[in-house]
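Deviation from plan, reported transparently: manganese (II) ion complex.
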Amino acid sequence: MAFELPKLNYSYDALEPHIDARTMEIHYSKHHAGYTSKLNAAIEGTSDEGKSIEDIISAGNLSAAVRNNGGGFYNHSLFWDIMSPNGGGTPTGELAEKINEAFGSFEEFKTEFSNAAATQFGSGWAWLCYKNGKLEVCSTPNQDNPIMQEGCGGTPILGIDVWEHAYYLNYQNRRPDYINAFFNVVDWNRVAEHMNNAK
Ligand code: MN
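Because the crystal trials were delayed, the predicted structure below was used instead.
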């Protein structure tokens, strides 16, 4: 079974004004679709065929094609899922407790996550990861990912894409403005579900 571009649960314009419709359309239908088809081409006829994306990208010694496109497939699948037009606000319950435990407060977490996203040089991602019962912030270049052997470890439960294709049409070089706006669309209920799945 080849990998399929996961369905978006909202329309391209649903995250406006924080993420504009044109960016969403190109990002999903061109970039993510491209990673998906190139991942399928890279694993066709290999022992990776039929494996889960997690098993494929965590295996180590990845070819450039699997590392870039497998990472791109996984990372964007998480990214769309943890955003919602009904997002924003602050986490509750166990997720809030884990954030307070790891960072002191939600505001301090936000500062650390935003800083990781702003200072990732060039293209890449910043992450909130669940690792050994605790939460951590890290960042990775290109389409690398925490679960890759080349990554920063743990299971990502929240990620922000800081490739220019994710924000340049609306924000140009103002990456920090995009990062601030991103918090208005984070679906903390989904992030909490990803944390539960990571246990
Ligand atoms: Mn992207």
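Residues 27, 31, 76, 161, 163, 165-166 surround manganese (II) ion (CB under 6 Å). We consider this an acceptable substitute for the interim report.
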